[in-house]
Amino acid sequence: MALPSSPPSSLTSKLRPLDLGGAVVGLRFLGPLAAFVLGEGEIVLVGDDEARVRAHHGAVLSVAGDDKRILTGGDDGRVVATRADGSAQVLFEQKGRWIDQVAAGADGAFSFSAGKTAHFQPAKGEAKSLDLPSTVGGLAFAPKGTRLAIAHYGGVSLWFPNAVAKPERLEWKGSHRGVMWSPDMRFVVTTMQEAALHGWRLADAGHMRMTGYPSRVTSMAFTAGGKFLATSGSSEAILWPFSSKEGPMGKQPSMLAPRDVRVCAVAAHPRDEVIACGYEDGLVLMVRISDGAEILLRAPDGGAVTALAWRGDGSALAIGTESGMGGLTTF
Amino acid sequence: MPDVASTKIPVTVLTGYLGAGKTTLLNRILSEPHGKKFAVVVNEFGEIGIDNDLVVGADEEVFEMNNGCICCTVRGDLIRIIDGLLRRKNDFDGIIIETTGLADPAPVAQTFFVDETVGAKTTLDAVVTVADAKWLKDRLKDAPEAKSQIAFADVILLNKTDLVTETDLKDVEMRIRAINPFARIHRTQRSEIAIDKVLGQGAFDLDRIQAIDPDFLEGGHRHFHDEEMRSYSFSSDKPLDPDKFFPWIQNLTQTEGPNILRSKGILAFKDDPERFVFQGVHMILDGDHQRPWRADEPKLSRIVFIGRQLDAAALEKGFLSCVA
């Protein structure tokens, strides 16, 4: 994306406002379509037109996906894959259980968890499962291959579902919720129940404590190239430097786009060192990391930003809020 | 645009030792024609069969918070369940959490003060404990969980009163009072009680702390006090110095937090026309100015702790040293 050298301070006129009719809990692009996942089970596919798909009969508890499908886990016990054509395929169903976490793997593989059990389903072949010491807080496939990071109380388990070997355990006291791999697979980072992140350097299992947040981190994203990990949780976007071998240890994070309300969602541009930053009052900024230049994309309306997603080519940003309003900005 | 600012969802916690009548009470709450819908968090499925309500199974996962405080535990499963329930918050008016007979109520209560999302969207209405009138005295001797459940309660149903004599009832009520001076006690049979005595209590609402009744505090416990768990109350008619009181209470709950289950206070500070009220669960304190003192009420500061093995003399000395 080419940002002009002296950017205009506002691009709000480019925002196409959307009334989605329910709290947005997840958001992804399926090719050119923005797929807004609503907490109460519907998915709204927005291109030139809008289409609604009912994926769950109940609440959506987690959202994942790739550029072809959006995966959702619900309190109706289902894992559903929804595609750009509006088809919703039930990949798994167990009545009476909640599907707490889902993750999308390569070539159509997927993983999900119900309570303390993580499941893996390859595109072809036998499903596998793994019992964890506590309820699964987060699931993430490594960027390449089929290794899964599973966050739980007391740490993260790294699991090769197709291997006989016991999962490798990365330990750190406390309850780990979200989990993410760095794009180069050198680091695994979790969001904790406390207002902190924890990370491990996989080469030597070195610990990385990332603390100082005033509130719990609920959103994080590696920037294009993996140089920074951008996170919510403070009244500015916090960016931890990950480009060196040691990761962020001993370094100060960068703080961008400070305001007097909290950042609650971040999303990294797929190509450039630019992030989108959503706040608790509904305001959304686009921020260039190199010099902190800000462009206003959405004016505040009171509803917290709950989801942000860039189109794969970086040409559009979709915005979802807790109050059921949203928007699509095309650059 | 939909309404963003909605009121918090009330949460009622039902505790009680095994066989006291907890599930009977839950079924009564759910089946009465009150027109309300509840999301119910239970530990075992099967005994509840109300179609209108949302029933979720809990795992009783107690998590320590990694913040250096050993008494700061939360229920990880509840955080996850409430996060999930909030996504369909239009489907119910309140949440009822039934704990197992052996559960410690503290991590349940602390969850509502420690987790930001849970605390922002829900409010702990009351801890309701069902106690068996015939067996409570024995359980207080041999089951620490039963003792904690009484100590923690805002509302106590003294159930199965038809199985004991009036003398026994009075005796068991005195035992309860010795441990917990502020719970509302209701005598019941087969857990039969008006729903408005159990729900909508606002027990953790600072605005609803009216008085800490001196009769409760001065009576009973001198003779019946439980050697391990009891209440400790102190008062002063001299105004307190906030610059002395806050450091004292904060240090006290930091150091004695594990032994202080609940605390409550109504305080008169020097040169302050308003009542200051506070309440606490272990080391978590919540306090605020409440309203101006009325002309007809004595400006008396009162403070109560429910705890185990506390040093009463040291507490009293500490409290009185806060006088301005």
UniProtKB/TrEMBL annotation, chain A:
Anaphase-promoting complex subunit 4-like WD40 domain boundaries: 270-324
Pfam families: ANAPC4_WD40, WD40
Highest rank taxon of the organism: Bacteria
Family annotation (SUPFAM superfamilies): Quinoprotein alcohol dehydrogenase-like
InterPro entries: Apc4-like_WD40_dom (IPR024977), Quinoprotein_ADH-like_sf (IPR011047), WD40/YVTN_repeat-like_dom_sf (IPR015943), WD40_rpt (IPR001680), WD_repeat_multifunction (IPR051179)
Signal peptide: none
Keyword annotations: Repeat, WD repeat
PANTHER family listed in its UniProt record: ANAPHASE-PROMOTING COMPLEX SUBUNIT 4 WD40 DOMAIN-CONTAINING PROTEIN (PTHR19857:SF21), MITOCHONDRIAL DIVISION PROTEIN 1-RELATED (PTHR19857)
Protein name per its UniProtKB record: WD-40 repeat-containing protein
Organism for this UniProt entry: Ancylobacter aquaticus
Lineage of producing organism: Bacteria, Pseudomonadati, Pseudomonadota, Alphaproteobacteria, Hyphomicrobiales
TrEMBL record, chain B:
Any Pfam family hit: CobW_C
Keyword Hydrolase assigned: yes
Keywords: Chaperone, Hydrolase, Nucleotide-binding
Residue ranges annotated for the CobW C-terminal domain, each copy included: 229-323
Reaction catalysed by this enzyme: GTP + H2O = GDP + phosphate + H(+)
Alphabetized GO MF terms: hydrolase activity; nucleotide binding
Protein family (similarity comment): Belongs to the SIMIBI class G3E GTPase family. ZNG1 subfamily.
Summary of the function given for this chain in its UniProt record: Zinc chaperone that directly transfers zinc cofactor to target proteins, thereby activating them. Zinc is transferred from the CXCC motif in the GTPase domain to the zinc binding site in target proteins in a process requiring GTP hydrolysis.
Protein name: G3E family GTPase
Species this protein is from: Ancylobacter aquaticus
